Structures are given as structure tokens and as C-alpha cells.
Amino acid sequence: MTEVVWDEAPSLQSPLLVVAFEGWFDAGECATGAIQWIIDHYEARRVARIDPEEFFDFQENRPLVEIGEDGERRIRWPSIDAHVIENDFAHDLVVLSGLEPRMRWRTFCESVVEIARDTKCEMVVTLGAMVAGIPHSRPSAVQGSAASAELARRLGLDRPSYQGPTGIIGTLHDALDNADLPVISLRVGVPHYVAGPPNPKGTRALLAEFEKVTGVRTEYADLDASVLEWEQRVSDAVEQDPEIIGYVRQLEEEADRAEATDLPSGDDLAAEFQKFLREERDD
Question: pLDDT by residue (tens digit) across 130-166?
């Protein structure tokens, strides 16, 4: 029995599925913040949800009691919702986000694969954020990877090299690979000394990289003012502690010494992305 509950069966134009989950791989809520940014800025509508009953411990993730405007009492359960966005993008979007499931990960990933297949998504992009030894005062670097050697080569992405304990995103990538659905990962580093949410700088970096790779507009520049305010607040806090000041200066020096690499332009990446998808359709 499927765990996906459909509100409607959308008909979409060359859709991409974009995924992020709250939890271990969402430092500063950068990844889910990027999903919410896209939902808030475009006419998104929910088309499906994954029934939470099988995937959560409700003693750990308790439902909430709410009183509606009509005065009626309602229970709001943990949710993992799929929204669609149809616009003048190169691709329509299916965006899936919510709490990281706590159990039955393989079954959960099968549900995500079902959403990707039933909406005829041509590729899946997962977003994530990790704490890292980086300074808040330097650009937030986004790393991209793909298990597919061909996809990694054409988009200038890394091949995954990590070995060890994994989370739901790693499990999902394995399920998508086994289902022959192309998938790439975009993940941003978050300064570990200021890892709490919100982090508009990390969110902006993910949105910018997503736009660069796929050609889908995200209006990430609208976050510039929030990023400057965030940087100033963190800098003001850092200046109050001499030990942290010294540590941040060291991180800045390391970041400045990092070797620059020649990266393809956004237009080149987006063109190669579209070419790859056209060839996948022809196959």
C-alpha cells in the first residue's frame, strides 16, 4: 500500500524534483529555508503528502493542537508535503520538504521515488547544509556531487567519496540511483560557531547554485539585505570575545589561501544540464 496521498495528478512541463528535510543535513535550516523561499515566491500548490503515520515517533515529534479562525480545534501532524510550481521556468518544479523521517527509511524513499515517477520528474536535486570550519565573513561555498560519472563530468560535479554513517538524503540517493532516476546533491557549509537558524547566507548560496546549475530562476538576490544584516549581527557578537576573534581570523586566512578553481559559467552549466536531460528523454 502506498504511503503517498495525492490531492491531484498534475500535468507538468519537464519537471524537476527538489528535496530537503529538516534535521541532520539542514544546518541553519538553509536547505529547508531554500525550499520555503521558492514556495513563498511563486504560486505553489500542494499536490501530495507522505502519510506520517509510518515514519515518525509521535512521542518525539508530537502533533500540535491548534484553534482555527472558526474556533474549531484541530490536530496538526508532522507533514512532508509536495508542492508544484508552474511558471515560465525552463522546468516546472516539484518541491518536497518536511521533517526528516525517523523510521522505515527504505519505505519512505520508495514513496519519494513514487512522487518523482508519477509527476514524470526528469531529475532530482537534493539540498543540504552541514556545519564546517569556515568563517561567516567569506562567501558560502556550495559543493555539488552526482553518483553518475557522466552527469558529474558534464556538470563539473564531484563524485561521492564519503564512507560512514549516512542520513535520509544518502539513503534517498541510493534509492533514486537504483530506480535509474538522475540525481544531484547540492550542499552548503555553515560556520560551526553560528550554526543555528536562520542562516540567510547559506540559503542564498544554495538558491544561487541551484539556479546556476538548472537555469531555473530563484530570485536569490532578494536575500542580499538579509545576508548583510546577518553578517553584521554575527560580526558584532564575535567582536565581544577575543578568543573567537582570533579563531575567526584564522579561518579567514585559511579561506583566503584556498586555491581558486576555474568553474564553468552559469550559462554553460545550465546549457549542459538541458542537453543532458534532452539526451535522457531521447533514450
Answer: 999 999 999 999 999 998 888 899 888 899 888 898 8
- Torsion angle of alpha carbons 183, 189, 192, 197, nearest 10°? -70
Say if residues 173 and 185 touch (Cβ distance below 8 Å): yes
Q: Exposed, middle or buried by CB within 10 Å (0-12, 13-18, 19+), for 260?
A: exposed
- Least confident range from 22-31, 115-124, 233-242, 255-264: namely 255-264
Domains of the chain with CATH codes: 13-57+72-257 (3.40.50.10900)
Left, alpha or beta for 107 (phi > 0: left; psi -120 to 50: alpha)? alpha
Q: How much is the pTM?
A: 0.91
- How far apart are alpha carbons 93 and 159 in whole angstroms? 25
Peptide bond preceding 198 in cis form (omega within 30 of 0): yes
Strands 4-6 and 44-50: antiparallel
Query: Measured between alpha carbons, how far is 127 from 124 in angstroms, rounded to an integer?
Result: 10
Residue 98 cell numbers, joined: 518536511
Burial class (CB in 10 A: 0-12, 13-18, 19+), 283: exposed
First to last CA, the chain: 31
Rounded to whole angstroms, the Cα distance separating 146 from 153 reads: 9
DSSP 3-state assignment of 13? coil
Q: What is the dihedral of CA 78, 182, 173, 192, to 10 degrees?
A: -80
Closest C-alpha among 74, 54, 72, 56 to residue 64: 74
Phi, psi of 71 (to 5 degrees): 85, 0
